[in-house]
Amino acid sequence: MVDPANTVGIPVNPTPLLKDELDIVIPTIRNLDFLEMWRPFLQPYHLIIVQDGDPTKKIHVPEGYDYELYNRNDVNRILGPKASCISFKDSACRCFGYMVSKKKYIFTIDDDCFVAKDPAGKAVNALEQHIKNLLCPSTPLFFNTLYDPYREGADFVRGYPFSLREGVSTAVSHGLWLNIPDYDAPTQLVKPKERNARYVDAVMTIPKGTLFPMCGMNLAFDRDLIGPAMYFGLMGDGQPIGRYDDMWAGWCIKVICDHLGLGVKTGLPYIYHSKASNPFVNLKKEYKGIFWQEDIIPFFQNVKLSKEATTVQQCYIELSKMVKEKLSSLDPYFDKLADAMVTWIEAWDELNPPATA
Amino acid sequence: MSSSEINKNEVDIVIGALNADLTQFLNSWRPFFSGFHLIIVKDPELKDDLNIPEGFDVDVYSKPDIEKVVGAANAAMFSGYSCRYFGYLVSKKKYIVSIDDDCVPAKDPKGVLVDAVSQHVSNLENPATPLFFNTLYDPYCEGADFVRGYPFSLRSGVPCAASCGLWLNLADLDAPTQALKTEQRNTSYVDAVMTVPLKAMLPISGINIAFNRELVGPALVPALRIAGEGKVRWETLEDVWCGMCLKHISDHLGYGVKTGLPYVWRNERGDAVESLRKKWEGMKLMEKSVPFFEALKLPESAVNVEDCVVELAKAVKEQLGSDDPAFTQAADAMVKWVQLWNSVNSSG
User: Fold this and answer.
1) % pLDDT > 90, chain B
2) What is the ipTM of this complex?
3) Cα distance from B142 to chain A (closest Cα, Å)?
């Protein structure tokens, strides 16, 4: 039996790390009550709320938080025709928040994620751990059996090449979840009562060349390093698929990070995932993805980006061409998705013009 | 998997004895070694007689036994930490669990002694998943599963070739690192087993390891000796080289290598600073090995383990031989090892 942490009485850190360099992006369609318990850890930071669904609904943001909020009308207004690339009625809309942010780092969290407890019963400051992960190098070129070598009390093991001990820049920090695990619908249907109670006290770099299922519930990244590749795809209303937004982004960012020599970490921090979504609803959303991913995975495993693709945008555009070429035959959806990937980059570049010298 | 579920007849526990007095070692492991067959191989260079407590089902091999089986000329292959490979050679079992003689059972965070043997066998009996990373680590363990987004066609996994365990207290750090951080001890118990992904290289430690002998036995090669190799782990690289070969061959043949649990408690022995005084060859050799293994492609025609080892040895000789005589010797040793393996194991 896993419980969330009780954060009452925990003081807000007077000197929070990267306070002015990090935005917290939260997609919501319900409410933001969960932010009450996150106060000690998140209140100092600026929030970007992306309100999905009915734009006339008023979303109440708990007192004391500094935020900007965008509903669908705002998305349409800001992006014009390019708004077509932003999903509606799906948490994939969160990537709009990445695009409008002006900060170097993003932390994104779902509105049903509470503060977790570590095995000692202490409340986990997930954002602090994500920041540590991002500020510290990754080691994708050689696996360290003691996991994160830069952590207090750890190091590189015997045999680890010295030339690789400096590591590379970390682009993404992928956190995990206690309580309700992030299972697909079939697994949820078979194991409705399974809860993740295992606190694995490690951060590790996912090796170069290895793909993984990236969950958007508890995720942080360096926007400067990988932002444009964090497009969460076309999901939800009017789309044949859902619950593959973060997966899609995860496969894209991983091949691009591998190509550009950036690192992706997974492991700590944990959050407490409180709400189990309806597995029957999930199955309807996912089922095409379950079949499609059998072709999508080999596609990503075999992607080779050109030497000339040296920026994230260039990599992403190249990737979109390959998606159109290789996956359109799977379903016309991928043709649309490839176009949306291009639209996304155009919108990103418009909203984030390069700083003039 | 509890010890009652393991078929003990399928397991040999192989111990390389670099210390003569194994009383404390074996007594501390007694709860977990009981019922298993043990193979203890005495380092041929160890002069004293072994002291082994009563109550174990054990076969002991020392220098004369080694020479009888492999010939006096080849006995040097099994000196020092490499003596354990002789045990791998003569074993007739499916699984081998091998632990250094300076390690005792560790305690988990609940204070319960860890049955490293059971955990290793469980790791070996369950599939590995090298083709896609599962963010909840071992999907086959109690309370876990494959996460959303994990392709269904990859969920049956592949056979597990090796289980690499870890160490509390004295971790397997190299001499420069330990010398710099003399007080550092590993107190972090990471409760996970995971598969090391396809093509990812890692330093496999021989301190606490298990493998499927039937599947990959010949791939555990006692080959690389650094100049002035000593009787403490800080002065060896034989297991790291063996591990690079094993991983590459496993990747080629479609097997998996796991890392993580079980932990053992590793005791103090030796002096890192003292080991540093010897010119530390290992660093140089590793730097050369990494690009070699990264670029290496075994031919499609190498479809069994022995062929893989022979092809790998050929590549080592061709591409690394001129860099350092240690590589040429390693290549020769690898070829010799396969010959020995075939001759010992065909005579039944």
Assistant:
1) 85
2) 0.96
3) 10
Residue to test with chain B: of A91, A158, A295, most B Cβ within 10 A: A158
* Domain ranges, residue B120: 102-346
Q: Give the residue on B whose Cα is nearest the Cα of A267.
A: B135
pLDDT at residue B348, as a whole number: 46
Nearest C-alpha in B relative to A144? B202
**Amino acid identity for residue B198 in this structure:** L
The residue ranges of every structural domain in chain A are 22-351
Residue B109: predicted pLDDT: 96
Fold of A22-351: Spore Coat Polysaccharide Biosynthesis Protein SpsA; Chain A (3.90.550)
**Nearest CA-CA distance, residue A207 and chain B, Å:** 6
**Residue A205 three-state SS:** strand
Which of A62, A54, A47 lies closest to A29 in space, CA to CA?
A54
**Residues of A with CB below 8 A from B143's CB?**
194-198
Angstroms from B105 CA to nearest CA on chain A: 18
Asked whether residue B152 is assigned to any structural domain, the reply reads yes
Dihedral of alpha carbons A70, A73, A75, A77, sign? negative
**Tokens for A237?**
């209303």
> For position B283, what pLDDT does the model report?
82
Tell if the CB–CB gap between A202 and B205 is shorter than 8 Å: no
The pLDDT score that the predictor gives to residue A356 is 60
Q: Chain A contact for B152, CB < 8 A?
A: yes
Q: How far does the CA of residue A290 sit from the closest CA of chain B (Å)?
A: 7
Total of domains in chain B: 1
Q: Is B156 exposed, middle or buried (0-12, 13-18, 19+ CB in 10 A)?
A: exposed
Reported as type and span, the H/E element at residue A87 is none
Contacts of A153 in chain B (CB under 8 A): 184, 186-188
Give the residue among B248, B229, B226 at the shortest CA–CA distance from B292: B248
pLDDT confidence tier of residue B279, bands split at 50, 70 and 90: low
Predicted model pTM: 0.96
Contact B259 A153 (CB under 8 A): no
Start-to-end CA span in chain B (Å): 31
Out of A210, A243, A297, closest to residue B197 by CB: A210
Within 10 angstroms of residue B181's Cβ, the number of other Cβ atoms is 13
Asked, for residue B73, whether it belongs to a domain, the answer is no
Average pLDDT score over residue span A216-229: 98
Q: Does a structural domain hold residue B38?
A: no
